[in-house]
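Before relying on records like the one below, remember that each one covers exactly one chain. Contacts with other chains, cofactors or solvent are not represented anywhere in the record.
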Amino acid sequence: MPEAQADVLTPDEVLIGLAREGDRGAREELFRRHVGIAHRVAYRLLGHEQDAQDAVQDALVKALKHLEDFDGRSGFRTWLLRIVTNASLDSGRKRRRRPTIRIDEAETGGVETAIQDDPALGMHRDDLKKVLYAALDRLSPPIRATFVLFAEADMSYKDIAALQDVPVGTVMSRLHYARQKLQSYLDGVEGIS
């Protein structure tokens, strides 16, 4: 049985085949390369670090358990993000979306140099993030999920439509609605143009 090499970027399709044959390294590499985007999507949907980590963990366990069900009609990333989105929405329905308390470390891994030099800039950035997350929180779960998959996961309309099992036109209208609503929520907020 061939082993996947971590230093060579092996295509997802090859890793899936190896993982299905029991190659633990292939399975770990497959999930390692997508866990970052999975976490960002879950965090944007839930607005709370611990909830996002829990949703991603649940999603990865489900994906691992059902890897044989991946049929290749979409890319692995799309399939995994569908599981992450569903786990996040399920978690959100159970717990209700919590207010965002800690934002800084989830995205940047720490404080940027400019903020270290000017604490007021860091406070202003944190205030803007809170306003943005509050606006995002006001969107309905399907609209928020569509917007997050487009803006954060950089997914195409077609991939989002496949992931959400809706027509491309629905994705387009949800994104249009999300942009309009977010703009109306953010009008007049200082520092957002």
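Residues 97-116 have pLDDT under 50 and may be disordered.
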